[in-house]
TrEMBL record:
Official protein name in the record: Four helix bundle protein
One family name in Pfam for this protein: 23S_rRNA_IVP
Taxonomic source organism: Taibaiella soli
Lineage: Bacteria, Pseudomonadati, Bacteroidota, Chitinophagia, Chitinophagales
NCBIfam families in the cross-refs: four helix bundle protein
Amino acid sequence: MVFLFDSCICRRRVVVAKILARAIIVEVIRSRSDFKIWYGSCSVSNMNEYKDLNVWQKTKALVVRIYEITKAFPDAQGYGIAEEMRRSVIFVPCNIAKGCWGFMTREKLQFLTEARNLLFQLDTQICIAHDLGNLKQDVKDSLIVDIVACQKMLSGLISHNRERLEKKTTLNQPVEEKK
């Protein structure tokens, strides 16, 4: 009976020791100067940190620009290309912000990839609007340049998060025992 009691205490001590070790590791990681890189571009401690990202700022400016440009589109189309362009562009910075709050790297990748895909969609819609005569060539070209710049920034963030995910999965692999 005493032996069972002692083994329970030993198991509890091991569990408590593991919990403390994890807490210490987390604190050490948080105290590092590259905390932003280790944990991604946003952390729980600062709710508005995604606003510091250049890609979020550029895509937000792109939203305003698209809304201003599509005001001049003809109303004859009704629910047409202008509304589709607005729908596509508004969700780009929103997905970037949501990606900052994805606590798992896979969630971040999902939202960042969706933001990049929406930029590809917007690129196509801009080409169609130009073909319909709603956009001048110089406006189209400047929008495409901005979109490509945002896509490149998002691709960099996606690559960075993929590398982190690969590192996490290799660190969590069980170590083979030597025989």
